[in-house]
Amino acid sequence: MFSLLALSLVASLAVAKPTMVVHERIQAAPIGFTTMRSADPSTMLNMRIALKQNDMVGLEDALMAVSDPASALYGQHLTKEQVEAFVRPKPETVAAVNAFLAENGINATSISPAGDWLAFSIPVSKANDLFEADFTVFSHAETGTSAVRTLAYSVPAELRNAIDLVHPTITFPNPIGLKPSFSAPLPTVGKRQIPASCNTTITPACLQALYGIPTTRATQSTNILGVSVIEQFANQADLTQFLRAFRADNANATFATQLLDGGSNPQTRSQAGIEANLDIQYTVGLATGVPTTFISVGENFKDGNLEGFLDIINALLAENNPPKVLTTSYGQNENTISRQLATQLCNAYMQLGARGTSILFASGDGGVAGSQTTRCTTFLPTFPSGCPFMTSVGATQGVNPERAASFSSGGFSNFFAIPSYQAAAVSAFKTRLGSTNAGKFNTTGRGFPDVAAQGVNFQIVLDTQTGGVSGTSCSSPMFASIVSLVNDRLIAAGKPSLGFLNPFLYSAAGTATLTDVTAGNNPGCNTNGFTATTGWDPVTGLGTPNFARLLAAAMAL
């Protein structure tokens, strides 16, 4: 009798396994990755769950209302609390997901200001069981990168509308990203030689002359320019040497440092990174007097192998006064990231844009082959350039006239549709394109880049040596500097900062501030890629900046 009663009690207390449904699946690992072996069951995974956000449609409407010059709400950027109200998951969503985790002995921690991301660590054996997954070790032969991932995973049927995604699962690392190369030593270019040399060698003086960038010092202390770099360090001594050579009138300028995910700020010159020095030297060196913060991201990613991309945005969203401009020169091929995760990151950029931050990313350095790879039969868009809530910057070279740099990544997203602000420009380009490259790109996708700027043979200082760097990594911080200088003048006049740029840039007034680039192309995938042409194109976007025209148009908003 006792044993039967005990068995009955145990049965009544047992938690039945829920009905599971496949939540995300890919057919195979991205190109370059091969299956090695089943993951060790004891390997710990830093898992992340993205909860269904409250009202992204409402937030997008609010973003466009404060970013569209034709709107009565233009410039009335949202507060931290207003944005979080759109994003914060419903209480029942949070309760249901936490109950599922608790039933399996997991206590999750919220890692985002609005509570839409949860974090926890579990071994592979438990992750396989919990999500009906098959975590496997994949290897990338070209770089030696390895990763534990699964090609599919499931969630309880009753939670499929509460959970946006689980990570890391079907999103793979980015072994081949934007990697500017450094050629040293090169002769330092003297100021008297600059006009003749700007066709082949770029210095701050070249950019000031080409784009009309002023040297007058900025005055607004709230106008922060953020430069985010992952696992690299910027060196002050190298910056000072750079400024003495190329901006002697600004030779004492410095930058602040913000540390994330175990980031550090070593000032031994041999530890400086090419990307970090490039970005700092061409923001501090061009945005004269603008307070510049170097966001140094270490290896302790809280966002679960997203290389700090989500951590950066979450950290800035948690601030009451985030930077007015944020530039990042990293990216990856869109096909290495899941559609749901790309949407989540894109939504994070939407949140920061609604707060009044202009977000700029380098478009990539592989032409239509994406992020420095040629193993493709159809064109590879890059991420986050395909996200409609940020500004993608391509590259040009040469002067009088400028032409597209052949490496400038551009194309059309496979994840994101054409945004309304871009519809007319993309339609006009596709009409001119005709049947060229038919079947090689998504005709309904968001086009990128949005704008362009010089990107070939930028002089920088690295560990005391002066040399050249090329890539869209040069173009994004340079364009960001111009936006920051415009913001300085706007704020001084009592006006709001530009915020999310694209609705303005694609308007008639915004397009008139840019110089159209109509020569060059971006080959890849065994094709000539796209060709720069009149109007917007997926090589150089709308064109390159003119500071005076941009400032005048911004002041008139």
**Poorly predicted ranges:** 1-14, 184-194
Q: What kind of sheet is the major sheet?
A: 8 strands, mixed
Number of helices: 16
User: Going by CATH, what is the homologous superfamily of the largest domain?
Assistant: Peptidase S8/S53 domain
First and last CA, distance: 84 Å
**CATH architect. name of the largest domain:** 3-Layer(aba) Sandwich
As a percent range, the share of helical residues equals 25-40%
Count of discrete domains: 2
Structural class: alpha/beta
Per the principal axes of the C-alpha atoms, what is the gross shape? globular
How much is the radius of gyration in Å? 24 Å
- The averaged pLDDT comes out at 91
Q: CATH topology of the largest domain, anyone?
A: Rossmann fold
CATH class of the largest domain: Alpha Beta
Number of strands: 26
InterPro entries: Peptidase_S8/S53_dom, Peptidase_S8/S53_dom_sf, S53_propep, Sedolisin_dom, Tripeptidyl-peptidase_I
Subcellular location: Secreted, Extracellular space
EC number: 3.4.14.10
GO molecular function, one term: metal ion binding
